[in-house]
Write a structure and sequence with these properties.
With 124 residues, this protein is mostly beta strands. The protein is globular and about 40 Å long.
Length: 124
Amino acid sequence: QVQLVESGGGLVQAGGSLRLSCAVSGRTFVTSVMAWFRQAPGKEREFVAAIRWSAGSTYYADSVKGRFTISRDNAKNTVYLQMNSLKPEDTAVYYCAADRMMRVETNHEEYDYWGQGTQVTVSS
């Protein structure tokens, strides 16, 4: 099994920054791609960013490109999401996810493991 634990959410004013962390434990070697998704009340869970453990290649949703940065620390089995220039529309529960397959998917149904989520609230 693989366990994911997110941290770092909170309340921030528009234009501010937050850094989310996702600690991965258990059978981490079965995971190939790590991703962040978010879900606002009444909306579908949407893809935010993804990174491959091995190559470190990154992928972003258009809505966050240039503002968010995903990174990983292989030694610590931790993935980060640095969020800058936050907007009220970024308000959501942010989830860390892991996929066993190498292909990067933006569909949340393709991911095998999930964290419990962390709330990010951006005030205007």
